[in-house]
Amino acid sequence: MTETLLITNAAQVVTMKGHKDKPATKDAMSELDIIENGAVFMENGKIVAVGNDQEICSAYKADHHIDASGKVVTPGLIDPHTHLVHSGTRENEYAMRLKGKTYMEIMEAGGGIHATTRATQAATHEELYEQSKKRLDQFLLHGVTTVEAKSGYGLTLEHELKQLEVVQKLQQEHAVDLISTFMGAHAIPIAEKEKPELFVERVIQEMIPEVAKKKLASFNDVFCERGVFTPEQSRRILEAGKKHGLIPKIHADEIEPYGGAELAASIGAISADHLLKASEQGIKDLAETGVIGVLLPGTAFFLMAEFAEARKMIDAGVAVALSTDANPGSSPTISLPFIMNLGCLKMGMTPEEVLTATTINAAYAIGCADEAGSLEAGKKADITIFNVPNYLTLSYQYGMNHVDTVIKAGKLVVK
Ligand code: NIG
Ligand code: FE
Fold first, then answer.
1. Taking 90 as the threshold, does the pLDDT of residue 397 lie above it?
2. Which positions are annotated as binding Zn(2+) (predicted)?
3. According to a count of CB atoms within 10 Å of the terminal CB, is the N or C end of the chain lower?
4. How far does residue 4's CA lie from ligand 2's centre (Å)?
């Protein structure tokens, strides 16, 4: 049976259309394509037409109708970097950091990622599913319709698979679309601290082939940072993933300049993420090779660190996307709208650029731009309606949830 839905009378429809084949860079990051007094018609989960209210309403009749008077319609927001599936919280470490301990000191003392690994290993599938589902519900309430989710708190084959299977189950059962990334190389387990090579070999020989065989991930990510994985180890792990069809991503230059951006460019990664301390050369390399810079200002905010140089990156020609980095240690939030505020206020981005960075560029960063990230005929009808009179208000009023309605694949999921 045909299901049709019509959104009418929107103060603004921000379509993001026209970024075909490649993410937006430089001036194109400001091209939102806004229709004043706009409408969207969708059928069987797909967008059929977007345009002026009168044109669309005279051409199409629908079973269901949403009046978006005084509101802004955008593509469903996309979060391209999260550590969604994990157990527990780390507010104790937050209190320690407020007294002066650093993130890396806490991790080196056996806390940090190791603390969440212990909790995640101890959790059952069901417990992980329930905790992650609650977070995903919150993403949806904040207007996010696609979320990338990484493993990396298992650190053994059994527990990495458990995390990825939870992602797979959520993908089948939750309204939000999930894109899965294997991140076995998130930390060197404490027991292998003195023999990191053994763990690197285990990721390469044991984990990557099994994850690929079970088709549990599309991407392979590595925490390339001093004291975690060296650029040389990261390269081997990412090359091994490539042989099994996993596309490389890198947690790059988060704490210090470490050659992560350069590695991302030379290995053909789809994205380099964090980049707080990316070098001049690294930024140049990303721009030249078209690697997307996924910036996570929530992490800089929460770790009280310097923010990534988004302005410099965009001006240099890097396609920038934004994400929450949702995780219990360095960015305990699911609010992508708040990340948009930080993008403007702390990284020198414009309101237009942050919208591009959380829609079409975010879609490119996780390989789903052919079906999400813009409102265009043929794409999935993933749509967020915000109760604001214009898109500028989204990155102006902060710490508020302006979401009014969320439509996922043509179905009303938040009202
Ligand atoms: O992206 N940097 C490494 N991984 C996460 C943090 C994970 C954690 O602290 O639990 C990040 O910041
Ligand atoms: Fe991360």
1. yes
2. 81, 83, 251, 325
3. N
4. 38
Question: Which residues have a Cβ under 8 Å from the Cβ of 161 and sit 6 or more positions away?
Answer: 154, 210, 211, 214, 216
The contacts of residue 21 (CB under 8 Å, 6+ apart) are none
SS3 39: strand
210/195 Cα distance (integer angstroms)? 23
Q: What is the pLDDT of residues 331-389, one digit of tens each?
A: 999 999 999 999 999 999 999 999 999 999 999 999 999 999 999 999 999 999 999 99
158 burial via Cβ count (<10 Å: 0-12, 13-18, 19+): exposed
Place of tokens 């078209």: 290
CATH code reported for the domain at 78-365:
3.20.20.140
Q: How far apart are CA 415 and CA 407, in angstroms?
A: 9
Cα(386)–Cα(38) distance, integer angstroms? 14
Render pLDDT for 173-207 as a digit per residue (tens, 0 to 9): 999 999 999 999 999 999 999 999 999 999 999 99
* First CA to last CA distance, the chain: 24
Say which CATH class 4-75+374-414 falls into: mainly beta
Break the chain into its structural domains and give their ranges.
Answer: 4-75+374-414, 78-365
Ligand 1 atom with minimal separation from the 153 CA: 10
- On whether the CB atoms of residues 141 and 175 are closer than 8 A, the answer is no
Q: What is the pLDDT of residues 96-128, one digit of tens each?
A: 999 999 999 999 999 999 999 999 999 999 999
- Residue ranges of the alpha helices (H) in 99-230? 103-108, 113-122, 125-141, 157-173, 196-202, 208-213
Ligand 1 pocket: which of 82, 83, 274 to mutate (most atoms within 8 A of CB): 83
pLDDT on residue 1: 80
ipTM: 0.97
Q: Atom 12 of ligand 1 has which residue's CA nearest to it?
A: 330
pTM listed for this prediction: 0.98
Q: Is 81 annotated as a binding residue?
A: yes
